[in-house]
Design brief:
There is one protein chain. The chain has helices spanning about 1-15, 20-30, 35-55, 65-95, 105-120, 125-140, 145-170, 175-214. With about 210 residues, it is mostly helical. The chain has one domain (about 1-214). The longest helix has about 35 residues, at about 175-214. The N and C termini lie far apart (about 55 Å).
């Protein structure tokens, strides 16, 4: 029980590092329904558990390779930019039905869009690998202990985001249409900006390594 509580508290603490996926789900809940928000949370939770499992199995070591890490970094950044552009294009062109921002419920699209957005950042495995390695050394966790720790850490994702979805669904009904459109644009800009910054950072790091190598 102590290990589970430790994992849950660690996971909840990590959730406060709010990123693009959080804003994406908030926007999805306000634009569609609470069920769309919840299936989106389920998608994030599943991805987290996939990465946690891979981290425990030691697959995260693969991403310690600089070339593999760079490739995943570039791909995930491009995906973020594309999703951001889809959102903004949907608002500017008024084509909200074909974009990920629809006023009616579409559980499949809500799940798959968030699943793809979340899983496009496989470097999360590196983070979980480092976290579990630290806990294994610091608290002398066995593989069984790490499984319990990973299970509780992943559950924090569903608890935090699930609660957020309920809150957003409550305030969503009183938000003006114009404000919702501005929120869409903001989310799109956040995704594009975050993806662009990551691409620039990867490029600079690559150039820096090449210059040092030269």
């Amino acid at each position: 029980m102590k290990i589970f509580k430790n994992g849950l508290s660690t996971g909840l603490l990590l959730q406060f590092a709010i990123g693009p996926v959080f804003f994406f789900i908030a926007n999805l809940t306000i634009q569609r329904t609470i069920l769309d928000g919840l299936v989106a949370v389920l998608a994030v939770t599943i991805v987290d558990y996939i990465y946690i499992t891979l981290a425990i199995l030691g697959v995260g070591k693969l991403l310690e390779n600089k070339k593999v890490k760079k490739a995943f970094g570039v791909i995930s950044s491009i995906v973020l930019v594309i999703f951001g552009w889809i959102i903004i294009k949907g608002i500017i062109g008024g084509d909200i039905v074909t974009s990920v921002n629809a006023t009616s419920s579409n559980l499949f699209t809500s799940f798959t869009s968030v699943f793809i957005l979340t899983i496009s950042s496989p470097l999360t495995i590196v983070f979980f690998t480092s976290l579990f390695a630290t806990k294994a050394v610091e608290l002398n966790y066995t593989k069984r202990d790490l499984l319990i720790f990973g299970l509780s850490t992943g559950s924090a994702t569903f608890l935090f985001l699930g609660t957020s979805v309920f809150l957003f669904s409550i305030i969503g009904g009183v938000i003006p249409v114009m404000l919702i459109k501005l929120l869409n644009i903001l989310v799109g800009l956040v995704l594009i900006g975050y993806g662009t910054i990551r691409l620039v950072t990867i490029t600079k790091n690559t150039e820096s390594h090449e210059n040092k190598g030269g």
